[in-house]
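Crash report, auto-generated. Payload:
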Amino acid sequence: MGLLGIIVFVIVLVAAVGLFARAVYQRYLILRLGKPEDRFDQIGERVKSVLVYVFGQKKVLDEAYPGLLHVFIFWGFLVLALGELQFFGEGLFPGFVLPLLGHSPVFFLIQNVFAILVLVGVLMACWRRYVVKPDRLDHNPEAAIILSLITGVVLTLFIADGLRAAMHPAGSEMAPVTVFLAGLFIKQGWSQSTLNTLYYAFWWIHALIMFGFLVFIPYSKHMHLIACPFNTFFRSLSPMGKMLQPINFEDEQETLGTQKINDFTWKQLLDLLTCTQCGRCQDNCPAYLSDTPLSSKRFINNLKDHLLECGKEIGSGNTSNSSENESLLEKSLIGSVITEEELWSCKTCGACQYVCPVMIEHVPKNVDLRRYLAMEEASYPSGVDNAIRSLEDRGHPYKGTMASRSSWYRDSWVEDLVKENNKEVLFWVGCTAALDDRNMKIAQAFAELLKRSGVSFGILGEKESCCGDPARRLGNEFLYDCIARENIELLKNYKVKTIVTTCPHCYNTFKNEYPQIDGEFSQKYQVYHHTEYLAQLLKEKKLTVESSFTETITYHDPCYLGRYNEIFDVPREVLQNISGVKPVEMQRTRGRSFCCGGGGGGAWTEEEGVRVNHMRAEQVFESGADVLCTACPFCMTMMNDGIKVKQAGQDKVVKVYDLAEILEIATQKTDI
Amino acid sequence: MQIMVCLKQILDPELPPREFRLEEGEMTPATEGVHLVMSPFDQNGLEVGLQLREKMPGTTVTAVTVGPEGAGDVLRKALAVKADRAVRVPLEQDCKLSGNIIAGMLAGAARELGADMVICGRQAGDWDGGQIGLILAEELGWPVANLVTGIEPGSGKLVLKCELDEGYEVLEGNTPLVAVVTNHETNVPRIAKVKDTMAAMRKKLELIDIDPQGNSLELASLEIPVKEVNCEIVPGEDGVEKADNLIKRLSELKVL
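Recovered output after restart:
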């Protein structure tokens, strides 16, 4: 290429890189709007995350079809990017050979194969986007532009490479597409000069498409190409149960919770920039699927649009509109970017972030916004306000209950345990198991199992209070903080070393959240969910299965046990220990389990239209199970109701049991 | 306008009946392990007062309770929803005093505070006496509106909406007056904002000493009736099985 060509190329390159860098810098400035957050610990683990989730595409591949097409395009582009160095070098300086790879026939072959894979990926994407048209994908020109650019990059690369090979086939002998195209061009009988002109024509088209793509990236959803590796690097390394950050109420707080976009942390803003609108979150969101106003995808993208609007002026350095920009930054998100109804529709089940391939953390943003509503505005949806009042007044959220915390054990052997407060094992019953008639049976069954195993344990009886989970999920962090501190102090009066509970919400609170308030809590207390504790008792042969339980059982993963604490296998193993049990899985299971609708305050909100528990009940019937096994009192209540409603017209009667109840039946001595 | 709202701390009325106990050897309810709350109708009264303040600039709301130091909790709750002042009239073991004496003490507080209007709940959620508002109005010599659901500022007068068995009556008048409030969807108590709750914890509660005066009816006896209930739950997985078991059981008992 002549000097003029090189100069033009350099100008275009500098312009493209400059525009790209400017746009990325604007995004960086946008992130600086956020509050500080420390995500720089465990660097080794973070690098590993990038390797596994970005280069390994682990989460992307959770879904076969879209996963595979993404892998084709992603890895194809990585390989093609390497080849671009040779491609551009050779065009600019004829005879240029990239060391090692330059004219390597194997590399040409690999490049050819990966380029084909990119095209296959693009075709798969087009099929899905324009023929299958899944609900979760938006239909806008952006995707079409991107797919066209990708196709353009690959086709021009093929043609230019074929033309080059037609002139001098150095290294291309093993590359089938290049060899085929070179043969085709040779057959045309074009002169070397024509071939050369055509080569440079396609070389330039290719270069312009590449640079156009580069500039387009930060302005489109393909920003995820840049943001995703960072978002993955800075992802939360804790279990999901630790995702909510506490508030220090001793510090003077300007605003409690998140009101404006810059009340979020920089990492929360990076989440927004990273979203690629793949819609996996929405596909797994019980609120969206039950026709509430909330879509987890729209939630993130509405915030993202608002953030980019706010960022427009900041990044451009144009301060003439700064007052308008300031007013955008001062704008309350609730009511303008997201409605109260959307916020309260969330069950905090965490399915959205569990499936998100780019590690977006949806739930804490929702709870942060709820915190503003709850604490600054004292605004709750109908039903929830009564739960909050009841928590404040009587330490449990069940206004109107005719039970007390002693109802489940009154006049039984358990009653004596309250008086003996010298035990090291505490059975923390939780509000629902203590106050709800159906759930009392779970408390009774578990207490019976502990007795049968010879475990010396105590209960707090009337001294027990709510763990604070409902208040926290409903955004009243202050109430949660007060309850948690009272409980931490209460426990200090006893010799307790082990806390075991049948409620995954209490479990999560003790395991992951109280240590945020009392740094020594984890050292002082071993916290178990009853499924873990029962598995251990079985393993130690303190509990032995005496009779069979001949039923087809499907296990429903409670969100706060499964997704929040990664306890998926333990309950299933307990069930497998029981002879006769025929396990079946529902279609949505384990990490993709469908919420019962009771989490995040859902147990107290009035659902309109399709109910989440009814949907889950239908999934239970679809599984063909006779018994639904749960391990959470909220799930028990919600699923019991759901099954009762959906039972009509079904061939079989489905019974709902807690794991403890099933084990209690199976470990009864049969020789009575 | 100075509004005085009377608040009473009571045993949680949601306490299940079988959990209700008396202090051993005494005629007072046991409070250990039992939650104490603001009487529900008083909460409605407070809400009516706060709503009226919002509509009439310059109005102040003073929360007043008669009771021991612990009763200050209800005053803190009132401050948390932004009552302007909170006053406690000290009294130990108020449950042994007749309503007329408590009403007299509240009337004394109203005079001391220079109140133009006194709002009470229609009856306390513990003993359901329902005397205070009416006797208090008599003590002060003020008119009283009963079963008020809301008060609105009208043209030069106050408009009080009162509940009847079927429908409403609307009363008009000027202060001073006593409004005895009942619950209604328009006076559902508000929830306190957290910063206001935190501020309320730091605020000072005022004390006004007023001697209890007048004849009191004495509590002669207080006991929990013992009910004997023989209840048997008929087992069964579904309605059909339960019905079968019920018939079987009734036959065994020779009822059928």
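Post-recovery validation: The mean pLDDT of chain B is 92.
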